[in-house]
User: Fold this.
Amino acid sequence: MPDVERRIAALFDATLNPDDRQMGSDEILDKAARHDGLLLTSFDKLGPAFIPALAPSIRIIATHSVGYDHLSIPQAEARGIAVTNTPGVLTDATADIALLLILGAARGASWGDRMVRENRWGETTLLTPMGHDVTGRRLGILGMGRIGQAVARRARAFGMAIHYHSRRPVAAEDVQGAVYHPRFEDMLAQSDFLSINCASTPETRGMVNAASLALLPQGAVVVNTARGDIVDDGALIAALASGHLAAAGLDVFKGEPNIDPRYRVLDNVFMLPHIGSATPATRSAMGHKCIDNLVQFFNGTRPNDLLTAK
Ligand code: DGY
Assistant:
């Protein structure tokens, strides 16, 4: 974002990415070599060899994302590198996309759009195509952090009943009557819609798999705005193809942008290219949060969004 780049350039001796180009890990390592800090995104494909290969001059990595599964915190700590992220400022934008996915998947936004573009509107009848109601249905939220709570607030306005599973129950005023399920499995049976809003961690990776999907009611809808690797793609694709699931809405994919090609041929999947935070105001706020963290760090104060021990 130009305002973020201007502020960085005024504060630091910075190497920018003026072409907004995705760089590979080697190029980032190369450009980072003469710097003390690094600002990168969750879209950068880094790999496990990245942090150990960083120049010894690097003392902090500020990631322009709330998720930090692309960085190993233990590796950073072992190298004495601080890591910060950008919680809070992308909550609403990401929750908006979760609702877009819920509505788009339930009402067939992908095939509806295709029918109009392909001049096939004339094929519609009173009975086909047909979507699914959202009002009065039950939404199960996996991960009731900031974004999960913002999804719940929006879904309530659509008349949905909210259930959730997270490691701990959330304060009553933050969940406004949502039903807590200490066991993920117990929530699934109560979820006509499942919204995935937890972080990708060793515990959550692959958590939405054949066994968990089988517990959802027939005709359920799954949406994911968190991370693709929380879902077992083979299991989700099989459940969509068999009709056990009515639809899915996906903004994130394992291995993105190289997604499992089987998704592309399923008519009941509504897909977006990881745009949860993609609005100018949100991306700019994320950038300024990165800068605030860098400034605090280099001034010798604890950054607001420090993920590492120091
Ligand atoms: C985040 O901030 O983690 C979003 O998914 C964008 O990467």
Summary: The CA atoms of residues 149 and 175 lie 7 Å apart. The beta strands are 37-41, 60-64, 82-84, 138-142, 161-165, 179-180, 193-196, 220-224, 245-250, 269-271. The two ends are 28 Å apart (CA to CA). The mean pLDDT is 96.
